[in-house]
């Protein structure tokens, strides 16, 4: 990865002056701090970073950074980011999403982004709820959690995004907690530096629609073992964890997908020769 | 409560001053952030409280710079990395609430001051360097005064009654 | 003290003040007291704690639009209220009540010449155990509007039933204090006493009315994805369907939602989804599939500010193009538009009926304004439209799903019917449903699908046509109410204007529209679209007489009766 490193960057350099509308107490404030701290640690200048997002509270983050950003349509941020990174491999591309935007409407693109393994980092702020639209269940909401659209709970088993990512080919998988701001920033740095598709799930409590998530700070804990590069081992570990293991869980060795772009082999004027009789 | 960074090493007076300064400087930024949150969410009383706290921490930071004399605390903090992650007086963001009262803000401040106090007390107890020990002891006194000040302020603001967070209006969808 | 037929009040506040709750209680109490009314709200960008205003208009008759200006505005506080200052229009006759501790009202208030009075609501609330300023404001509003304390108290008891007697007493005390504080204030006008006539009262929003209309029309399956401002339809339908033997599924996205309802409808269950502009865009491909395979379904589009993510919490009428023209290929389908909150009930029920009768997708263009406004009305009359699908219940010989029947509607075999097996297909097909690329079949099936819609007798519900005069005002959807009011004011000036508001936008009705326009020399088109979508649509399908003027603008500010009145009077021949 091309990094144009300027060692004197401070986290403040990466923050815009737009004031977030996130509710005070929202985990996403910590995530924003982790972003700016990670970017500063990497030393990549703000203009070389692109933050791509969809729709939802988490997806508001690009405007709160001082980097280039695209606040796109619901669920399609990975596709947009793919187009950007393939044609601009020099940029550091970070995609921000939530459990609704990323795992529901974005589910299909999630699978294929992992499969393609283009070099980018996908950060999903998972709060187990649709916050922006006032509290519908998301694919990670617990089956017994009561909501207006699913009275009495969905009764559906929550999604296992980390395992889906593994099965689909993601090259780096980590789980963080927004409140562990320090560790999250470090893991983001690692994720960005690791080649290929890096997937970082950040458990980020929703203070307004999931006040019960205040408990998360007591439920998270470091994963008992370090990361593996064996996808099957990683899958078994993740499928048997309690959903609150933190840390880097998988570090793969796949080559990132980087199609040839920009190098002209023939003169376009030559092409019409094909039509000549 | 967010997990704080591991306590950094204090091997020199410069380390001590830089870390002490950073505690205050970080607190200024954190209180400013909270003031902004309160302003966006129409809680003018807390805007003032957090801005006052930021101002107070700013004064502390300046005092430490003066006390440090020739030591360039800012540069030293930058070079050594200082506190990685949240420093002791950075208020816990997850404890904020758009309807919070001054009592809540002061509780946050109290936690921070006590954490800073504990840090310096730890240095006093563990350092082998006499100069560091002496300076750290002064900082202990400083932080103890801050703790006392917060306690005095808390006398002016009683703990709010149950239901302080009751908002009769439902949340909005914005998108 | 002037007696007025209708009166408008706004309650403004931020950060947990409870302005919207006060507005809700006020319309509930006023409705119980016998008035009719319309409540809308406007909010800041925050999810909690933002600045908010409840806008309420009360009258003795149905109210379908906001007034040009507020008569009374009560600011619990004015923090950031200037953000929606354009919606808080006051005039020299208006009374604005503020709290000395609440900051300054938006600059527009002073500019308007409104009278400003102070009531220390925050202080007064402090004097009541657990007192809240919004209850004081509610009491002030109640007193000045003539809504009895007893009605307000009754709804306080209902709303706070779970919170205990202390909370109830605190609120009642607040209201009482507000009444006392307002005793010495002269509003300068008095709302005409309500005329209770024993008719049942309803308090409902357009979104909820859509839900009820759907169930009454026979809908028993819904699949949808949450989207502002349609989500309340889903929240209402989820338990309602469960209770009536149906079910609602939350889909993973709109692509899934529309395909799910195609599946359910194929299986014989009348089905519906609800979305907004961005979701409708995603559903376009599958709507083409439903058209080609002749599957009945209903799509509610609660229009919001566009394009793209746009202004999700505000209203606009700019999805007309995509609703009518968005499908690729020649794919005729139905598009309807309700004209008021109450009309959401009828139009949705009618949509379900038409979808089932014509085996075609039906888009209902509601909007944020009717969708999320709360109205106090008399219970609307029942209508008998219930979807009746033409079924092939007994099949003799070879079953031709897409038989070229007279009228164009061919009997549909529901899976499970012996002998009726067929494969529904988006591919062009023959009468049996077998794919073909032949010219004759393609032409015949396109003719069939167009014929079934064009030859159907829609009756008088296709449009609202009222009044006489050489000027016709043509509008649609939620602007119909403002248009009516503007026309009524013009009539008071001696100017006669006819109103034409189609409820059925697709298929077009050229003969009936021509009949409505007979004798008209001028046409004034009124619509909430930057590009004048309705104007272009009318020109594309109908002959417009003589001179045409267009009053159009995008959201977020609805076109008001006063503007329409002015457009009429300024257009003197």
Task: Walk me through this protein's architecture.
- The complex is a heterotrimer of chains A (277), B (175) and C (573).
- Helices cover 29% and strands 16% of the residues of chain A.
- Chain A has 277 residues and is of the alpha/beta class.
- Chain A has one domain (11-275): Thiamin diphosphate (ThDP)-binding fold, Pyr/PP domains (Rossmann fold), CATH 3.40.50.970.
- In chain A, strands 2-1-3-4-6-5-8-7 form an 8-stranded mixed β-sheet, with helices on both faces.
- In chain A, helix 1 packs across helix 7 (181-193), helix 5 (107-116) crosses helix 6 and helix 6 packs antiparallel against helix 9 (231-239).
- Residues 1-5 of chain A have low confidence and may be disordered.
- Chain B is elongated.
- In chain C, the strands form 4 sheets. Chain C has an 8-stranded mixed β-sheet with strand order 7-6-5-2-4-3-16-9. In chain C, strands 11-10-12-13-15-14-20 form a 7-stranded mixed β-sheet, sandwiched between helices. Chain C has a 5-stranded mixed β-sheet with strand order 17-19-18-21-22, with helices on both faces.
- Chain C has helices spanning 19-32, 107-112, 121-126, 133-145, 149-159, 165-182, 206-216, 231-243, 254-266, 277-293, 320-325, 341-358, 368-372, 439-454, 479-492, 510-517, 533-541, 561-569; strands spanning 2-4, 6-14, 36-43, 51-59, 72-75, 95-98, 115-118, 189-191, 201-205, 221-224, 247-250, 271-275, 297-303, 334-336, 361-367, 374-378, 463-466, 471-474, 497-502, 504-506, 522-527, 547-552.
- Chain C folds into 4 domains: 2-191, Pyruvate-ferredoxin Oxidoreductase, domain 3; 203-378, Rossmann fold; 390-456, no CATH class; 462-569, Rossmann fold (3-Layer(aba) Sandwich).
- Chain C has 573 residues and is an alpha/beta fold.
- Classes of the chains: A alpha/beta (277), B mainly alpha (175), C alpha/beta (573).
- Chains in contact: A-B, A-C, B-C.
- The interface between A and B is medium-sized, with 30 and 30 residues.
